[in-house]
Write a structure and sequence with these properties.
With about 130 residues, this protein is an alpha+beta fold. The chain contains one helix and four strands. It has a domain of about 70 residues. About 20% of the residues lie in helices and about 25% in strands. The longest helix has 26 residues.
């Protein structure tokens, strides 16, 4: 099972370095314009490193050196029958999404705000219909 890194489709091999689409303006950071390419590499047959280069909150590319406000590394173990692979995944957050990372960054905050607004409007309309 290979993780999809920021809508860039890859072949089924976890050691692949080939990206199906060329670098475009969409794969540049929104802050400084540095080209960011998702990376995968492996040090052993069972350990794979995945770095998407994207902010987990808003999904935009973030350069590692200057605009990554928070970097979190996690280990995910994927079992495949009797074998298992260990994926070391890097989660990045830009300066705007880092304070809101627990609710999904900017996109998650907007989703929660929309849910609260819908529930509040349903409650208001239901209250008006009763009285």
């Amino acid at each position: 099972m290979l993780r999809n890194t920021c809508s860039v489709r890859r072949s089924s091999s976890p050691l692949t370095t080939h990206v199906a689409r060329p670098l475009t303006a969409a794969s540049r950071t929104r802050f400084c314009g540095v080209a960011v390419l998702p990376q995968q590499w492996s040090t052993a047959v069972f350990a794979h490193y995945v770095d998407s280069g994207c902010c987990e909150g808003c999904g935009r590319y973030v350069c590692e050196l200057t605009h990554t406000a928070l970097r979190d590394e996690a280990v995910e173990i994927v079992r495949d029958g009797l074998r298992s692979s260990r994926y070391h995944v890097t989660h990045r957050y830009c300066a705007l999404c880092a304070p809101l990372r627990h609710i999904g960054g900017i996109v998650g905050a907007v989703r929660w705000l929309a849910i609260v607004a819908v529930v509040a409007s349903i409650a208001i309309f239901a209250f008006q219909a009763l009285f």
